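S1.2 Input.
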Amino acid sequence: MAAPKKGRRPAGGQSRPGRALAIILIAMVALTGGMFWSGHTTPRLGIDLAGGTSITLKAKADPGQESAVNETNMNTAVGIIERRVNGLGVSEAEVQTQGRENIIVNIPRGTNEKQAREQVGTTAQLYFRPVLAVTNGAPQAAPSATPSGSPSAKPSASATGATAGEKKSATPTATASTQGRALTEALKAPSPTPTTSASAKPSATGTPQATPKPDPATAALEQKFTALNCLDPKQRTAAGQRVKPTEPTVACGEDAPGVWSKYLLGPAEVSGRDVDDAKGVLDQQRGMWIVTMDFTDAGSKKFQAITSKLSAQTDPQNRFAIVLDGEVVSAPSVRQTLSASAEISGNFTQQTAQDLGNILSYGALPLTFETQSVDTVTAALGGDQLEAGLIAGAIGLALVIIYLVAYYRGLSLIAILSLGVSALLTYVIMALLGPAIGFALNLPAVCGAIVAIGITADSFIVYFERIRDELREGRTLRPAVERAWPRARRTILVSDFVSFLAAAVLFIVTVGKVQGFAFTLGLTTLLDIVVVFLFTKPVMTLLARTKFFGNGHPWSGLDPKRLGAKPPLRRTRRAHAPVDAKEA
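S1.3 Output.
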């Protein structure tokens, strides 16, 4: 008879259960230590649990372009708003359309909530326009394009970095040494035509000649420029709005806190779409915050063309205005051709510079939006719902434990310990995923965690029933534990794969809070496999070696008599042919 080979493991056996237990113990200690080291010992909460702000935006189309409010542009706006808010590190911001022309933005309370509220509806239409005239922000008695060197010419942030409040020449310039960082990279525009010419001009012979009468559109623009009062917030806001980029316009710009200038601007030559990247940085030499911009290839060519033309003009026609959503952010002058990059300087703080860079980096909204409502969502309602959900989960868990104790008796100890390990891993991983990927726990996610209790308990039940089936066949506990594992393992993997596939599909095809349910369901399903393989099976293997379980104690849940086990399996001896006495 051949001797058994040494080192051969039984089918589905596990020769070293302690190794698997050591792996999961090390993982639990490492994850828990990482949670405390990161300082985030609780999961982030969503808007329904932590409270926050809900903003309703309504799309507005420019005159004659009502068809621009369509599904494509609305979906594009949703994507841009999401990237802006996520770029600020706000967790679980929810952006979705409502009806044909509304967008709902839900921002949870927490880090950068205020910045996110300010940026969600900002259209961020950026244009570089040539300056035709500039004067102080008060309404004028008569149209007057401020000539070069006039005391009323108040330049805003210039290419050399000086702000409007500083006393300096009215012709700030961009030199070669400041080319890379100046707020210069501006537009191309035809030679600006003076827009104010009501008085007679002397001819070369000294004879006064009447200036040609401007066309009605030019006259209307001059009148608008003259009457504009930039000290009035309503006029200031409406000044540069709803104007086509190809048309001249008027706009206001803040030179210093409370000090405004008004500008007469030519058609736009470079737009925000020509900006490849933008960010707020601190200029160490000048000690001020600026926004640097890099142009696309096409944008660089446009910018080179406009700076080439502007550099041949005199102040203020050698200046270009950087106009954001109808307001002049900066208006530097140009003395030489520039192309590669530009910067915007002015009265920026660190936050405002970084906000503007964030907005420009993710692009302009394809539509103009007005804020319909801004509602503060309290956590009271969500807290009540969370409390009700936790109570329901506790009741469900208690019923599961009662069933396990009543039906499986001693085996219920393994199930309860496994549920505890699964709950600990789920909590720690959720706490770590908050700062890592912005995961926030909301009510649907809590529901997903509660549903996972049943999925995890189902895996234990499958394994326990397979062991009992082996005991009913007459095997002892230790072989039964090892022989039951391969069949139980296949069933558990198939069941968990179906659950994970459903969670993945749900996560992909849904938006908003339903994704929280799908994510939590998928996470707990993966953890169920980890716990069953690295904890439940090894613990069962170790307990099978004890007298309480190995001898089938009535309270072990593995009593052969209660299970109706067959007599122990015995090997049948091979029958031998009779031999006669001589052979014996």
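S1.4 Remarks. The chain has 15 helices and 15 strands.
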